Fold each of these.
Amino acid sequence: MKKIYLDYAATTPVDKEVSRKIEVFSEDKFGNPSSLHSFGQEALFAMDHSREVVADFLNCKRKEVYFLSSATEANNLAVFGVLKKRNDPHVIASPIEHKAVLEPIKRSGASFDHLPVSSDGIVKKEKLKELIRENTVLVSIGYANSEIGTLQPLKEISEIIREENKKRKEKIIFHTDAVQAANYLSCDVQSLGVDLLTISGHKMYGPKGAAALFIKEGVDVSPIIYGASQEKGLRPGTENVYAIAGLAAAIEVLDKNDNERTEELRDRIVRGVLSELPDAKVNGSMKDRLPNNINFTFKGAEGESIMIALDREGVAVSTGSACASNSLSPSHVLLSLGLSHEEAHGSIRVSLGRFTTKEEVDFFIEKLPSIVNKLRMISGK
Amino acid sequence: MKNKGYYSEETMKRFLNPEHFGEMKDANGVGKVGNPRCGDEMTVYIKVEEGIIKKASFQTWGCAAAIATSDVVCEMVKGKHVKEALSLTEKEMVEKLKKLPALKVHCASLAIKGLKEAIDDYGKEGK
């Protein structure tokens, strides 16, 4: 059976070119970048090169790039690292942020306000100003949503924060999780106006195990783990040179992503599915959306069932986010959009990627309707 | 033996091709359990004659495990006396499915609850 992967938002395969470029770091150039001998120095050279590539991609200085093990770790550092030295801090984030942002905020003990989202999954930026308090220290808004692919108006938000900061001694820090956006949108931190930005290697055709956090020069972030002086002491622990070089190599071949082609395939799926299942609903704005994301709700059929039945046909999609699959609660993102529990449970996410073909998309469009209809027969709904 | 999928083959078989689904017009016991909040809704229908469950069917909106356990419960109680059917356990159902992920065992509980409600409903009406 041919297997079709339509879950690129969960993780991507490593691009062959990336694999080829970094295989040398597994058996050959295996040194510890902190070692002064030649083995260490060639690894350190790879770290420096990787940092340069990421800095170019983000349009920042090399010293503003910090490597870590995952986007979750980066987001934890962004939240806890900023809040650590603050007294009675206040944080603002949207309710549709990834758990890797929401959970650290909740556990930090900081007071927390949601910047609300509209029913099409875009934050209501005009509400930001009234939420900002004297003790607000951090605003975190994801660039593109991992479940529904909606794009957030980061520039406008950073403009509001900049205006506010003019009046302040202690500046509000603006963080964005750009993990889902990095494949398709500019991550120029100057033009976005962010202070902290997270990207992850395995969402961009690099290996798992490396992420980067941009920390604008002058922004005070404290370490959350302690050890030696790697990453200027902000992220101690021997660097995962292989995966970090992989993240950089992935960025070097990023222009292989074809936004227009991906968008065409996305719209082909939407058209194809809606023509067979006219009562299906697309969650999230179709206008301000990643080219590779679709999120459907089907009445009378539950998401996990659809996903498992599709998997039997060789097609991999997901319900909400892969990270939520081990939980029974429906997607917090879809509930925030105002969907009922039933609608939120009846949703699947289809995410396309660099290697998705028209044939694969058509196979999915062909298989889905009978699965949904069968489940509707079983549910009687 | 290592399991290759999230669900056992038996669970998959019943999920993909359940044999007992559908509304039962002449049912004399109906049990409705679950809710959209938890993501599973089951209705169990039984037709009882002289204490024996002659037919059982279900309608389920929910995950693969919810559908498979609904199908199993209907199959397991068919031909049984209601008293005997009431002693059906989660464990027996899981055994019948070979295996059920820990997170999904509650689906078996829900199916049993649906059956009990259906039997209650039958008893209540003094049918």
Amino acid sequence: MHFNWTTEFYIFVLAVFVGFQLISKVPSVLHTPLMSATNAIHGIILVGALSLLASGHTEADFWIGLLAVFLATLNVVGGFVVTDRILGMFQKKPSGKE
Amino acid sequence: MLEFEQAGYLVTAIFFIAGMMRLKTPARARSGNLLSAAGMAIAVLVTVVAHPHLPWLATLVVVAIGGAVGFLVAKRVKMTAMPQMVALFNAMGGGAASLVSLGSLLHANVTVVGQSVAALFTIIVGAISFSGSLIAFFKLQEWLSGRPITYPLQKWVNGGVLVILAAVVVGLMASPHNAGLATVLILLALLEGIMVVLPIGGADMPVVISLLNAFTGLAAAATGFLLDNNVLIIAGALVGASGTILTQLMSRAMNRSITNILFGAFGKTVHSGVVGTVDDGVVTHATVEDVAMLLAYSRKVIVVPGYGLAVARAQQEVRQLLEKLSQRNVDVRFAIHPVAGRMPGHMNVLLAEANVPYDKLFEMDSINPEFKDTDVTLVIGANDVTNPAAKNQPNSPLYGMPVLNVDQSRKIIVLKRGMSPGFAGIDNPLYTNSKTSMLFGDARDSLNELVRAVEEM
């Protein structure tokens, strides 16, 4: 594995800028689903948890990895499902016709 | 890392960004979330294929249980409980990030100093996010008191823990594979998370949740540095940015700095010099019939909902009132203060759940100029966010906080349980304003009666 600081920092910094641009365009009406959507997105740590679990050598690695996979799965599934529920409510009626 | 793995992660990153772009409009937002979910599925699939040595059975069992629990909880949670739900899922993400870094640090493959730094950062921030979010969850769920929990020398204790934490970090930089020291580090970080959130009051939770959300995002990004995984870096950066923006918005809406919220133990210190003004002024009482008459014959009405509305579970009744008044061609709008709920945008969700169309919901800056040509403003379960003292009484603790210009409308009706002051214990001169009438009682009962009275007119 090659550890490439500079490239990764470039990516990080650019992603932060993209993030600021994207988020500042979200209307305040949608701030709760925004938060819960980003909450689900940081469940991407599941990818890290899976690779840790796969490359572990000791028993401790195994249990740490397994617990991480469990927590991350909860985060991902719960996060996306609850966001979908919230956004479903905003989809119902575009305008108040009786 | 294999090439197809990289390619898959790139697709995931694109899906995440495209998904967030769709959050610009309420109608398209749902498809954006599905897009992000699809991106997540691709990332997981790619990872699983690239790691044939995964302990399959154990992984499947854990994923099945975690997925089922997450699904059921997310399907059943009430919208009023959304803040604690977000806090709970945030804790899970933070905990997972912390564990992944712990596991990687103990591995032999952490050889570069930068990697140790990334690992230690994630262990600490992830653990703080985990325990801090859990405390926020307990507080919002009211398993713990929502009031600030304080004790003497609290700041010194918190600071002391930080100093020990720093010492352990130095030790781990020297010998990264020391499992005992790493365990101590995680425990200390967990403790710090608990102690930082304990003294923060329930009304400040929108800030805390946003901040911890940013923390978990940064922890995920740092894990990306550790594992050389770009999708973790990108996703983590996006979440970090979003959490940071929301934290700033929330603390600005409360007119307090983040440091003040985190370390100020609000509610303890604020006892204003304006106590007693309510008794000096005259409070005008209104009857249901008066208010119904007033509303039914108005041209333009603004409703100001506060968290008290959700506490009284009166969202449906508000929507009914909106419908009745709309039938009479009254222009009804809702003015939503940024901190009207327990998390950013919470009040919008609660009203959307009750089928209030989102184009009736207006944020503070866009509706504030409209109060002056509004016939009636109906304040339901909101207090501090309507307090004119924030604009014109420099000695008020609220002074400088952005508030809704309720006092500019021609007539003001306040639905309230009694004359008790708001969460912060600050009197509201709005109530003794000559244009204001108070309709006392449970918000839900009052609204029910109002709906009936308007109907009969």
Amino acid sequence: MINSSQIMQTIRMIKEDKLDIRTITLGINLLDCASEDTKRTAQRVYDKVCRVAKDLAKTGCEIEAEFGIPIVNKRIAVSPVAMIAQGDPLPIAIALDNAARELGIDLLGGYSALVQKGFTNAERRLIDSIPEALSRTNLLCSSVNVGSTRAGINMDAVYRMGQIVREIAELSKDNDCFACSKLVVFCNAVEDNPFMAGAFCGAGEPECAVNVGVSGPGVVKRALETVRGESFDVVAETIKKTAFKITRMGELVAMEASKRLGIPFGIVDLSLAPTPARGDSVAHILTEMGLEMAGAPGTTAALALLNDAVKKGGVMASSHVGGLSGAFIPVSEDIGMIEAAAAGELKLEKLEAMTCVCSVGLDMIALPGDTSAETIAGIIADESAIGMINNKTTAVRVIPAIGKKAGDVVEFGGLFGRAPIMEVNRCDCSEFVKRGGRIPAPLHSLKN
Amino acid sequence: MIKTIVSVVGKDQVGIIAKVSQELATLGCNILDISQTLLQDYFTMLMLVDVTGSKLPFMELSSHLKDCGEKMGMEIRIQRTEIFDAMHTI
């Protein structure tokens, strides 16, 4: 039997430390919707998504009420649209956005292409259409995988994505270039990720699956407050125990959602996902470890410990772990990161180092409005190289804030927060990114 | 049996247990166990409640109890016990 103090601990985690389930994401295979006519494909896509996910929002709300745990987002991830689109893919984008709105969910991901080794014709068309697709929809998210440890890095795709990011920014410049936050460029993208903007339902996934992303940086910070001054051995143990508890809750919600929706359970993503609210910050876990601010010397080591301990604690708490699993460091979505960036103590280069040891990559970072497509492509290339060489997922989600300069701030609101614009290295890399071709896969990709 | 924990937290006052128990009885919910502590005027009560016979669906029951709590200046939550079991037992 559970005792009173354990019950009160759980209640406090939810009430005071902002423990929540970040998302229940329903993966839906759309490959059977493909047809020769895009409009017919779009109609099939709309019908299937609406049919499979008809109870998603309602079920999420019921679980939230019965277990008393907030479920912040209900989302859908579909097969990469480039796999089903013959001809112009835009009608499918509109159909997906309409379906998401009809279902009352928060975001839908999968306007995606996997081009790490090269483009199919459909993938080229899809990538070209991303700026218009994101400016004509509200809930649709897009991702493009440009590299992998097995395939190397497609540098033609890297340069093209630099241009695409700029085009999206131009098209949404009246809205603080917000549409850029709905596109992520990956290396080693995973097929069962429940987090946006990069969620899609990969080719190896089942017909549909329930994937859950947990959160809870506030809970970890609170736990570390009780071990101030203790050694890192104690810090790591404390994080592991906390991560176990958080993940157990994610597992419970995932199983319950799976049972009620009649859809198989996929994975729990062992994640620490911040929000801009105070007390829900990954950066503040790092400062609790003894750093003045995120970005101080020691930040990468602190993040490495955190990321590893979260996985070790969480892995026993769930029957199937997957997705991105680790600590996220989106700048605009984390009050501690925002403060450090605004103070000029957290710079792009330090963030790049941090991405070597954390869950994903350069996330929700605002750049000066005059940052060129070539510079953005250079940043994508660097980040992809880190992912390729280290066998991990890396990603770039940057926002060139048109008309603004370093030191200004862009406001997105809600979970997306606000981002102080960071200075970018101005040295020219255009000759480098324009070479094209593929950076070969590293030696350690040959494992067989 | 649908077992839940009803937690009542707030500043101590006359009749908290009476009011919450009365409310649960009216709604058809069966109290299985109660524990209560008082720490510096801060009242915390945890009730193990079977809501199988509840006259209201769970979501309405939850918001009804929340409203009742607000009238008394207390915070009342109802949560299925599975969440506590999941978090604290292996």
